Amino acid sequence: MRPPARLLYGAGLAAALLLPVVPPAQAAPPARTPTDLYAADGKKGQELPGMPSALDPRAEEALCTPASKERAKKQDWSRQRLDLDRLHRHTTGAGVTVALISTGVAPGAEGLDGRVTARGEAADDCVGQGTFLAGLIAGNGGPAPRLAGVAPGAKVLALRGTDRRGQPDPALVTAAVRAATTARADVIAVAVALPRKDTALTRAVAEARRAGAVVVAAATPEPPPRGSADAIPSRTYWPAGEPGVLSVADMLPAGARPDSALPTGTVDLAAPGAGVVSGGPRGKGHYLGAGVAVATAYTAGAAAAVRAAHPEEPADAVTRRLTATAYPADIPQLDAYAAVTTVLGDAGTPAAGAERAAEPVAVRDTSGTDRATGRAVLFVLLGSAGVLSLLWAGFALTRARARGWRPAGTPDES
Which positions, given as ranges, span the membrane (predicted)? Predict the structure, then answer.
């Protein structure tokens, strides 16, 4: 049965009115990384290739992450959330060395040239994640200074804690922690998480802490690429579970952890970990990254900034400062600017009446904006539906009156 022409006309009119408020569907971007990972950047995303955390271990040959041909056009939400523009007026982390235990770092990567020490296999970053994280810690942004890392004046000691494909190895992580301690790194960032406690690693971490290093570690591994993380029970991962280690989890722009995040009860801080922009080991383009390692890098950069601004404070005091100045939430959220500028009392908490800076710290949470946008769209949809209903009723009444209130299709008896 064909629908009446008037009904088709009404449906077309409704579609015409509603089109301006319904965002157009976008085709999924083609796979541009070996693991088909594409990190989202909220509702105003930048279309950049995703940076994987590891390569496919089943592939016969490790195909390294290709160079990005895209450049970011704006500062992402994470740098705004951490107030990096204002932070850099107080400190850039100069004089501090951060040891990054990840997939390696390309010493000549844009924005890092001259400040990365990487020997042997640590200079070969096939995956690309280590170089990406180094940019978040100490990158200067190259031609885009607003994409600088937390501590763009710091130095990076690159150490490999994974095989060439990005799979974590306990022996490599232990050796890397020991190498960082020997090099007297001020901050040690362990961007991988191991499922089992390792005696040798426990000793290495304890030695690093006795040497005065701030140890920051990923609270969990990245979630599995397939299946649900809900089936994985909550547990402690290592070395994040070691005493004195600052355990970090990732958070979305609204402050919540991703739905796919692995559960754990040992988290000290949450930091931005979705839709984050940084560079890679090849080319001059940018990528989008996500995950616990990204949050760990941001926190390590904040620790470097604190160490540079407060060189008299020992490692434990730096850790207390990062947690005491965090934005209060179910999991305290890293506030790099507040960590550097807040005056702390004797107990390691913000002193009564102390000001963090001449200007109040604005903690940017996009959840309110998202909710307001959702309500606005709903109101427009409902309003449009109401207008359409009135127009259709008027149209129907006019036609019925013209027919002498006879049903449609009834022959005229006159």
Answer: 376-397
Q: Which two tokens stand for residue 155?
A: 């130095």
Q: Is 184 helix (H, G, I), strand (E, B) or coil?
A: coil
Task: Kindly state the tokens that stand for 329.
Answer: 């939430």
**pLDDT (tens digit, 9 = 90+) per residue, 132-161?**
999 999 999 999 999 999 999 999 999 999
Q: What is the pLDDT of residues 378-390, one digit of tens each?
A: 443 445 455 455 5
- Residue 350: CB atoms within 10 A of its CB come to 17
**pLDDT tens readout for residues 343-376:** 998 767 786 544 443 333 333 343 443 344 344 4
Reported CATH class of domain 77-365? alpha beta
User: 211-229: b or e for each residue (b if 16 or more CB lie within 10 Å)?
Assistant: eebbbbbbbbbbbeeeeee
Which sequence spans correspond to the domains of the chain?
77-365, 366-406
Residue 400: the pLDDT is: 56
Pair of tokens at residue 13: 């009119």
Q: Please provide the DSSP assignment of 112-167 as one string.
A: TTTSEEE-GGGG--SS-HHHHHHHHHH---TT-GGG--S-TT-EEEEEE-B-TTS-
- Is the per-residue pLDDT at 76 higher than 70? yes
Any residues with CB less than 8 A from the CB of 128 and at least 6 apart, and which?
Answer: 51, 52, 64, 65, 103, 280, 281, 282, 287
